Automatic annotation (TrEMBL):
The lineage of its organism: Bacteria, Bacillati, Actinomycetota, Actinomycetes, Micromonosporales. This is XRE family transcriptional regulator. It comes from Micromonospora inyonensis. InterPro entries: TPR-like_helical_dom_sf.
Amino acid sequence: MSTLQEIAAVLRIDTAVLLGWEAQPAGVAERVEGVERIRVALSAYEIALERPAVRRPVLPADGLAREVAHVWTAFQHARYAQVVDLVPGLLADAQRTHARETGAGRVSLVEAYRVTASLLVKLGSPDAAWLAVDRAMLAATGDRVLVAAAAVQLGQVLRASGRARVAKSVMLAAAYRIAPPVIEFGTPSELSLCGTLLVQAALAVAREGDDRTAVELIDEAADMAVRVGDGHDHHRTGFGPTAVELARVAAAVELGDAREAVAWHEKAITRDGWRWLPAEHRAAHLIDAARAYLHADDPINAGRVLLEADRIAPAEIRHRPAGRDILAEVARDPAAPATLIHLAATLGVG
């Protein structure tokens, strides 16, 4: 680290301030440019206007399915810069394959829009994510499983857009539409989708301050999670008992109960299922945990879990606005770990 960076870290200011620059923090310009490229891809309407922008072979349905799986895997490993580069081509391929093989290409088209929406929410662009998730819901219409899968991202987008009340209503409708008549006879796929949608509804009502309903919905999801078990990833939900315990942390943070959130967090990460969750899921949870520790007046542990998040999935801290925001907040605390202050200074936040 340079002398200027060390001075900036001690003063808890951006190095650019010492140099008199009006520079954007590291990674911000790249994120903005990446989101814009995806927005352009979503706005192309190549098939409808019969004007493909690039002459490239139309992928067969199985080839497209492999491409979708590759992009989802990259997302779940929190390789967001790579996913940003892959998504425009994926969207074009999915639209072309679906146009030629409507039935066979439908699932992959929905999945392409789902992963796009998830990425855009991560990158702090719910307006662009709305366009992707709307396409997913339209493509899924008529298939209850695909609608439920797309509704998972719809819940994320609605909550990120500040529409918690609408999110609750829509998530509950989608959850009970996919719910099996008798839970004991439900398939892991159905239970994973239904439970994930109930969790989305719970997080929405928690944001509205309704603690009783939030607990009831998470408890209902927990009953389903027991029947699914940990270590599965039906419809890219990661749903299982551990994921539900992590949802209790997120709900407690939304409700402003930091000490309860910390208690749930410290219990959840001791479960075997914790290490089976995707890197993206674990690191995103640690950002929630950092917020809980900070609000519980424990900046040392807040810094510790942020550094762990950076180790598991650096992009959650370095490219995700929510991660950068909590990093800056913790780094300003006088008790923040020196390593965290250096990381904040390097990224130009704080």
